[in-house]
Specification:
This protein is of the alpha/beta class. Helix content is 41%, strand content 17%. Strands 4, 5, 6, 7, 8, 9, 10 and 11 form an eight-stranded mixed sheet that branches. Strands 2-1-3 form a three-stranded parallel sheet. α6 packs across α7 and α7 runs parallel beside α14. Bound molecules: pentane-1,5-diamine.
Length: 347
């Protein structure tokens, strides 16, 4: 018994030494706001000896702008699908071959070979989800909104100033395109104009564009309708029981967020240790239980809260999954059109 305990202690000590010799120090993680539990970062530090400094952003576009402006010092960033591809093309990401990490074997298909990084040379999966909208059934007129993007883009007059849109050009453009039946990768200026017209007409109905604080804003009853990611919607419902998350019938943007290492990272070994550690079922499950989103790691689901797994917005039925529209990789020309529309809308 005592011999065994001693043996374990010795093993633990040599493991701790091996880790600190390998990749000691700290890493700088640049992540979406409210997207990783602080306790999990503490657990990582305890397990590996590597401290994590966290800085946050509110959109893929903010992250891109920061890296393009030459920000160095970040070791791990968390771009979504389409943004991974843009960042690879702009040579902003370091090749690290995620498939060589020991825990990559836990990654479920199809996230092991996604279209935006088929070899997983530059990225590893974090959370996935969809972007729909949430309303407070206790307060919207009639207690119900149609499961259509119409409810969000062309809300009834009584909802003026009671609707918030995410400050997210991809989620906004794709949702509008789905509603209008326009290809999300359109390069056609006329189709772009249709999208801009819809968004321009919606603008006076909105209280604001804001991707941060969506949970608190709904729970505080500041507004009645919020464009929202499904994990945030799940967390909204924990305190606001009358909140309803809608996956519109015209389809919802389906996204996957990913860990990546920017060129110029000071501690790429520490970054890899972190990314590998996050692909362990027990660690990613802790992240899911906090964020409210699903992940692509085998064996994590049985470690996730039962209520989270049972939630129709987080784990939709097969029927509902038919409404998922994965973010596509559009041409540079299509992305320019999209950016032009967003700039015009916001000026
Ligand atoms: C962070 C949620 C980010 C998910 N609050 C967007 N892909």
């Amino acid at each position: 018994m005592i011999r065994n305990t001693l043996k374990h202690l010795a093993a633990a000590a040599s493991l701790a030494c091996a880790f600190s010799a390998q990749a000691a120090g700290s890493i700088n993680l640049y992540n979406w706001s409210d997207y990783i539990p602080p306790d999990l970062l503490k657990k990582f530090e305890k397990d590996t000896g590597i401290k994590v400094n966290l800085d946050v952003y509110d959109s893929n576009e903010s992250l891109l702008a920061k890296l393009k402006a030459g920000a160095t010092g970040y070791d791990v960033v968390v771009p979504s699908d389409y943004m991974v591809k843009i960042m690879i093309d702009e040579k902003l990401l370091m090749k690290f071959d995620a498939t060589k990490l020991s825990n990559f074997k836990n990654v479920l298909a199809p996230m092991d070979k996604p279209p935006f990084d088929p070899q997983r040379g530059y990225s590893a999966p974090y959370m996935w989800g969809v972007t729909g909208f949430t309303y407070d059934s206790a307060r919207v007129p009639g207690g119900k909104l149609d499961d259509s993007w119409k409810s969000f883009f062309q809300p009834p007059a009584a909802l003026k100033g009671q609707v918030v849109a995410l400050n997210d050009p991809n989620d906004m453009f794709v949702a509008a395109a789905l509603y209008l039946g326009v290809n999300q990768c359109t390069e056609d200026a006329k189709e772009g104009q249709k999208v801009l017209d819809l968004l321009t007409k919606q603008k006076p109905m909105l209280a604001m564009y804001n991707s941060d604080g969506t949970i608190e804003r709904m729970q505080a009853k500041e507004v009645m309708v919020h464009h929202q990611w499904n994990g945030a919607a799940y967390r909204t419902k924990e305190k606001l029981k009358t909140a309803v998350f809608v996956i519109p019938k015209e389809g919802v943007p389906f996204w996957t967020d990913n860990f990546a290492i920017p060129v110029g990272a000071k501690n790429p070994e520490g970054a890899k240790t972190f990314i590998n550690w996050m692909m362990q079922p027990e660690n990613i499950a802790i992240a899911s239980n906090f964020t409210g989103y699903n992940n692509g790691i085998k064996g994590a689901d049985q470690l996730m809260d039962a209520a989270l797994r049972a939630d129709a917005g987080v784990n939709p039925s097969d029927e509902m999954r038919k409404r998922f529209r994965p973010n596509q990789i559009c041409s540079p020309k299509a992305m320019e059109l999209r950016n032009r529309i967003w700039t015009r809308l916001k000026r």
